[in-house]
Amino acid sequence: MSNVFASTHPLVLHKLSRLRDISTDPKKFRELVQEIAALLVYEATADLAVTQREVQTPLAKTTGWELKEKVGLVPILRAGLGMVEGIWELMPSSEVWHIGLYRDEKTLRPVQYYNKLPTEPTVSVCLILDPMLATGGSAIATVDVLKKWGVTKIKFVGLIGSPEGIALMQKEHPDVAIYLAAIDDHLNEKGYIVPGLGDAGDRQFGTA
Predict the structure, then answer these.
(1) Which of these is catalytic: 20, 24, 144, 199?
(2) CB 126 within 8 A of CB 74
(3) In a 3-state reduction of DSSP, which class is residue 24?
């Protein structure tokens, strides 16, 4: 799993444990999702291309740097929405494009219901945001859409992944790096990650 990165940062480990806790209320849950997302994207963007530019400090001129690549955030509705704000704190100029998918509870396969991507790509790097990489179906479908759109540099950023979802993602899109806060034990018969944290969308929006 050379392109799968599970964070070992103490802040991520601490915040993820609070996120898992059943007693964490929706407000705190949303805050933790934002904070962990920002920490993970800090790691996921370490290889972004930069270009030099001259900077005038109060004392002298020096060489500075600025991002060369335009970054697009692609939250998978609805749970992925909670990750955007934390990342915007780091990259306020990032474009956000929404892709709506829901999981058919009988087949566990993704069904697309929303896609407003423009005809031509407006960014060179896309970060797919979804708290849970469970069966992998939604992530794979989103990568399919983005590749058809014309984006070649794609990464997945999530909070928790299952071994099954990671394996399927790597099989279908081995070029897409996966950044997670943790890799959990397995999926249960309903396609939920165990031990996981429950339904990330319900817990964020108080609809459990």
Answers:
(1) 199
(2) yes
(3) coil
Is 199 designated active site?
A: yes
Answer yes or no: 103 catalytic: yes
The one-letter code for the residue type at 159 is L
**pTM passes above 0.85:** yes
Determine the pLDDT at residue 117.
80
Is a pLDDT exceeding 70 seen at residue 1?
A: no
> Hey, what are 116's tokens?
């407003």
Q: Is residue 161 helix, strand or coil?
A: strand
- Residues 30 and 167: their CA atoms lie apart, in Å, by 28
Domains of the chain: 4-205 (3.40.50.2020)
**58 vs 55, 61, 62, 65, 87, CA distance in Å?**
10, 8, 11, 17, 30
Q: What is the DSSP letter of 175?
A: T
User: pLDDT-based confidence at 120, cuts 50/70/90?
Assistant: confident
Q: How many residues does the chain have?
A: 208
Read off the pLDDT of residues 7-38 as tens digits, 9 standing for 90 and up. Answer: 999 999 999 999 999 999 999 999 999 999 99
Catalytic-role residue among 24, 78, 144, 202: 202
Among residues 29, 18, 25, 4, which one has the least CA distance to residue 168?
4
How far is the C-alpha of 135 from the C-alpha of 150, rounded, in Å? 25
pLDDT in tens, 42-68: 999 999 999 999 999 999 999 999 999
Token code pair at residue 61: 């001129």
Annotation says 203 is catalytic: no
